[in-house]
Structures are given as C-alpha cells and as structure tokens.
Amino acid sequence: MKAVEELRYLVLALQREGNRLLAASLRPLGLTPAQAEVVGILATRPPLSLNGIGELLVCESGTSPSRIVDRLVSAGLVRREGTPADRRQVLLSLTDQGRALAERVAEVEDGLHQALENLIGDRPIDGTVELLRELASGFPAGQAIQRRKGGAAN
Q: Among 2-6, 45-49, 105-109, which stretch is predicted with the lowest mean pLDDT?
C-alpha cells in the first residue's frame, strides 16, 4: 500500500469512527450529526439564509441543507422568518428550544474533542493540521471550514 493511499484510508477511518461516536452521543438528544452541525452553526451566527447555511456545512457539503432544516423546523428547533426588504428571502434562526439544545450539542462536541485530545496526548499536531488544511482547501468541505473560521456567510 502506498503511503498516500494509507493516508486516505486513515483519514476515512478516523472520520467514520468520529462520526459514529458523535452520532451515538447525539442520539439521546434526538439529533443526527448533520442536524447538530446546523444547530451549531445557527448558535454561533446571526440569522442565515438556507444558502448561507449550505456554505458553512461540512457534513453535507455540496448539497442543499433544506431537508435537514425542514426537520429542525418541524421539531420546533429552527424558525423561518421573512425579511422586510425581500419576502422571498427567508432567514433561519434557533428557537428558544433550539438554543437550549445547542448548548447540549456543544457539550457533546466538547466531550468528543476532549477524547481526541486525550488520544493525541502531548504529540504535536500543528504540522498535521496544516497539511490537512492545505489538502482540503481545494474542496467544498475544506472551503466551508475556512468560511466558518472566518465568520463569513449570509
């Protein structure tokens, strides 16, 4: 196996295991990882359009987040509001129930991040993170991460 092939499979294996652990931790909250990502995005930003959310999603990169948002609206976690300037424009924000759940989602994510930090220990990861950032930068999911770090989206 070539080193680059092993890298690809190692990243895939870690992503799958991380997503499996996250899904198991979110299950008691009644959320999928994709739904939790939308809740997390809305918890840290002003109201966003559907396109604005789509530009920030990593888990559903390249696809419309409308199914995810529809489920969150039906569950009473997200509200849709028109804008006075353009009735066709709809902005999405968390309801009070959604904000309360966002705090619990953040606790779940913090727990996962702590578990990863414990696995990593004292080993330096800055070089690895930089390499992965550079590799991901040419892809929609990598660009979504950069937008989230920069705080931009409408």
A: 45-49
